[in-house]
Model the fold of this input.
Amino acid sequence: MSSSEVTNPTGRPDEITAVPVRHPGRWVAAAIVLAIAASLIRSVVTTSGFEWGVLGEYLFDSRILDGLVVTIELTVIAMAIGIVLGVLLAVMRLSPNPLISRASWSYIFFFRGTPVLVQLLFWYNIAALYPKIALGIPFGPAFIHPDANTLITAFRAAILGLGLNEGAYMAEIVRAGIISVDEGQTDAAQSLGMTRVQTLRRIVLPQAMRVIIPPTGNETISMLKTTSLASVITVTELLYAGQLIYSVNFKVIPLLIAVSFWYLVCTSVLYVGQHYLERYYGRGSSRSAMARGDLATAAVASPREGGVA
Done:
């Protein structure tokens, strides 16, 4: 053995001094982000055009808050219509009856293929097409003939436009959730004598909710912001309320910031609600839950770890 070879008398390998990996790129990126953020903050604070005093004056103005209430009402009603219609259209789309399936496909194709703003304008101007709207038995006598301008107000036109459009998108979301459930679940339910409606309500939809909830939450948040399009047809929602104010005092930027603030507040609340709904319906399917299940299975299967042989 040469004198240059050194052995450890204990027979154990020498300790290795670990050197952490250097990431200079991360520090450079962080410095760039901080510089940009500092520049933006300085610009916001020092630019007089923001008029923060005016913003504080109108942030809780009764007209802005009334517009916020209308925005929330539009969001809730339109999403309720969209969800109910979406479930119905999804079931129709999956129907073995080709006529029903084709009718659902045609509805989805039309409402997804045309801009929602165009649909809002159409419903708002429906009186130009039908001055009187007959309500009664199809191909039979009409019981009432209300005036279209009286029946279809700006608010109702917004509900129709937003709700019917949302139904087309929700139909595809619900359909994706339904087909994500294994067909064996349906076969097992039918073997137990369940009807198709019972199978859908008690077996398929509860399992499909895990897939349906996340995109539905996104659609709700999107709907909250899409209601601003109703300002085009003079619905006094949040944006239009701000427009009415700054059309008088010409304080455009402060009013738009106030409107944006309330949109951010509402979307933040919806984000929190979506998080808890996803966690509730995702029980047993998350990675952490699966990991816990794997550990429990291993403990039961391994006698060495105190499990049952």
Remarks:
- The first helix runs from residue 24 to 46.
- The chain is about 70% helix and 0% strand.
- The chain has a mean pLDDT of 86.
- Residues 8 and 17 are 17 Å apart (CA to CA).
